[in-house]
Amino acid sequence: MSHIFQKIEPKKPKYQDRSYKGTQEQRQKELSKSYTLYVGNFSFYTTEEQIYELFSTVGEVKRVIMGLNRNNKSPCGFCFVEYYTHENAVKCVNWLNKIRLDDRIISIDLDTGFIEGRQFGRGKAGGQVRDEFRTYYDPGRGGYNTNKDQPLNKSPGNSKRRNYTQRRYNRSQNRNDNNNRHNNRYNNRYNSYNERNPRFRDED
């Protein structure tokens, strides 16, 4: 008898826990039966209730572990979601990944499993490392970066995205410089014209 339902396979995860000690084969084996998800890129103001309500549309949620700033224990834009079954976790990745929540596109990936301590950020300021190297203002994730003295070329993550961000920042700086030079040339030209034209000279 042929199968009516096709088994849903998870998409290849993009997130990887850098503290994972096992081999790649061990990691893939754990992911193949995992019921835990890593959720990232949401706003600091997104609540646990919102996460629970959204992920419950796929299946019954066992628990939600909100990511916290290591220093002040405030939310810092990521969490772990646990289902009761691996199938629901896979469906969630396939159906809800890249969905918009609080006007932000969130990322969802299978995770090898939550361990106590992973709910805290690993950055120098207590939050996520990615927020310490941001070169633009993000009101949903604390504004500007919290580590402005760190050189941009040492930031982790995708190099193409990092280079694009640097180019965008450079273009904005160049535009400001060009505007300043234009204003200075205009002011100099205007002042020079006033000096040459007696009608604009101040009367003694």
List the helices and strands and how they pair.
Layout: H1 24-31, E1 36-40, H2 48-55, E2 61-68, E3 75-83, H3 86-96, E4 100-101, E5 104-105, E6 107-111, H4 159-196
Antiparallel strand pairs: 1-3, 1-6, 2-3, 4-5
Distance between the termini: 107 Å
Q: How are the strands of the largest sheet arranged?
A: 2-3-1-6
What value does the average pLDDT take? 77
Class derived from helix and strand content: alpha+beta
Number of H/I helices: 4
Query: From N to C, what is the helix and strand string?
Result: HEHEEHEEEH
Instruction: Please state the overall shape, judged from the principal axes of the Cα atoms.
Output: elongated
**Low-confidence residue ranges:** 1-8, 151-160
The counted number of beta strands is 6
Q: What percent of residues adopt helix (DSSP H or I)?
A: 25-40%
